[in-house]
Amino acid sequence: SKTLMETVELFGSNVSDRHHVDIYYHGVSYMLFDSFVTHFCGPTSTTSFIEVAAVFANQNGVILELVPENEYSHLKAFECSWLSCFANENEILFFGGHRPLKFHNIRDFGHNEDYFWYIK
After folding, report:
1. Is 15 exposed, middle or buried (0-12, 13-18, 19+ CB in 10 A)?
2. E strand or H helix at 8, and its extent?
3. Handedness of CA 114, 118, 119, 120 (dihedral sign)
4. Residue in 66, 49, 65 with CA at minimum distance from that of residue 101
C-alpha cells in the first residue's frame, strides 16, 4: 500500500488543476460517516461518470458525489484509465487522507432519494 500511496502523491495531479472534472462519483453499497467533509485514509476509487458509479452502488446502494474541500486544495488524484483493463470507467484514485474531500451530494438508490439540499 505504500507504493500505491506514493504513486498517487508523486504522479497524481492536483485536483484544483483538473478543470475537466468537477465532481468525483463513488458508488458504495453501505455508508456511515459522521461528517460531510471526510478524510479517505485508504485507496478510494472514483469516476467522473455517474453511470459507472451506479453499477458499483447496485440497487440499494448510494452514490457519493465528492468535490475538493476548497479551490486551493492540494489533494492529489491519479488517473488510472490509461493502465486499466476497463478504461471506459475513467477511474480516478485517491489515497492518503492528508487532504479531505467534501460531500457535494448523496444519491440513495434504494429509496430514490437525493440529499443535495440537506448537505448544503
Report:
1. buried
2. helix 2-11
3. positive
4. 66
Residues 13-25: pLDDT tens digits? 888 876 678 899 9
Question: Are 109 and 59 a contacting pair, CB within 8 Å?
Answer: yes
Q: At residue 42, does pLDDT exceed 70?
A: yes
pTM over 0.70: yes
Residue 96, pLDDT > 90, answer no
Residue 113 CA to residue 115 CA, distance in Å, equals: 6
Question: How far is C-alpha 38 from the geometric centre of its chain's CA atoms?
Answer: 11
Those residues whose C-beta lies under 8 Å from the C-beta of residue 117, and which sit 6 or more positions away, are: none
For residue 106, the surrounding DSSP H or E stretch is strand 101-108
